Amino acid sequence: MTPESTLRADIVEVGRRLYTRAYTASNDGNISVRLGPDRLLMTPKSVCKGFMTPDMMCITDLDGRKIQGDRDPSSEMLMHLEVYRQRPDVHAVVHAHPPIATGFAVAGIPLTKAVLAEVLTTLGSIPIAEYATPSTRELPAAVARLIKAHDGMLLANHGALTVGGDLFAAYYKMETIEHFAKISLVARLLGGENLIAREEVDRLQELRGTYGIKAPAPICAEPAAEDATCQVVEAPIGRGLRLVPDILEPPAPAFRDRAGTTFPDRAATAAPDRVDDGEIRLTYRELSALIEEAIRSVR
Ligand SMILES: [Zn+2]
Fold first, then answer.
1. Which of 114-128, 206-220, 248-262 has the largest mean confidence?
2. How far, in Å, is the centroid of ligand 1 from the Cα of 152?
3. How many Å lie between the centroid of ligand 1 and the Cα of residue 75?
4. Taking a C-beta distance cutoff of 8 angstroms, is the pair 169, 92 a contact?
């Protein structure tokens, strides 16, 4: 068992890294670790994670009762408690708002495409927990549906959550999620990802066993039930190809929030004048290139 003084120092260090990397702003984010069978060490509420000291931490039991500490525990304590209840293998939880990953969470785009081998072998897929009011019991309920099968997830219109066998394992998963989000964003700006084919994903999954990577659930092809017992990864059948260009997604279906309000499909509302009448739209640069080519051929 790691000494308490070391765990306090580790929380201070991880808080500093989160803040330095701008994964949190102001007093955002929270960190906790298991201190014993029924004890958690947790960041206090309303402090900047970049400037904590070891004496600031709170000790609580697994029901959230404060055992020790001058300050009150994190406002997101309920979410942390839910993770520890459901995952006896988890010894640390990190919550932050890394901007690119949170951008995906705000856009409602999960990081579930088969793109990077390292991400597939470690985190698998990074789904989005449905929107919940921060600091209420809604948030642990949203997380509860996914945490059994995932070590990392986005929180709709909020941030990201990672867990691990120790604090640095949980923290590095937060780095991986933000890094993956950045790469995904750049690839989409450049025209879209090539996806790793299903057959290769199966091969990568076997590597988890070879390298002793502990994943909470296997990768599966089909969308899982609501209480997700596997990691759904979008990977097309390769038919001999190991990389397959991502096909354009059909317009996102309308979705409903918790209150049952139905929102229209964004693609349809964003381009109401788009009609299937054979019209071709070109950018200014594409049009200029066509004209230049035409002039050259006339000469
Ligand atoms: Zn938050």
1. 114-128
2. 14
3. 9
4. yes
* Distance between Cα 29 and ligand 1 center (Å): 5
Complete DSSP assignment for 86-115: H-TT--EEEEE--HHHHHHHHHT--B-B--
**Which is it for strands 39-42 and 58-60: parallel, antiparallel or unpaired?**
antiparallel
Return the ∠ at Cα 211 (arms to 208 and 217), rounded to 5°.
25
Angle, CA of 163, 225 and 86, to the nearest 5° = 30
**Cα 30 to ligand 1 centroid, rounded to whole Å:** 8
DSSP state of 225: P
Going from the Cα of 2 to the center of ligand 1, the distance in angstroms, rounded, reads 27
Residues 108, 112, 118, 121, CA torsion sign: positive
Q: How does pLDDT run across 99-117, given as a tens digit for each residue?
A: 999 999 999 999 999 999 9
Taking the C-alpha atoms of residue 297 and residue 295, their distance in angstroms, rounded to an integer, is 5
How far is 254 from 262, CA to CA, in rounded Å? 7
| Average pLDDT taken over every residue of the chain | 88
Answer yes or no: are the C-beta atoms of 101 and 185 closer than 8 Å: no
Cα of 48 vs centre of ligand 1, distance in Å, is: 13
Taking residues 275-293, what's their average pLDDT?
67
Residue type, 142: A
179, burial (CB in 10 Å: exposed 0-12, middle 13-18, buried 19+): middle
Query: What is the amino acid identity at position 45?
Result: K
Instruction: Give the chain's radius of gyration (CA, Å).
Output: 22
Give the chain's domains with CATH numbers: 4-210 (3.40.225.10), 262-298 (no CATH)
Band of the pLDDT at 153, cuts 50, 70, 90? Answer: very high
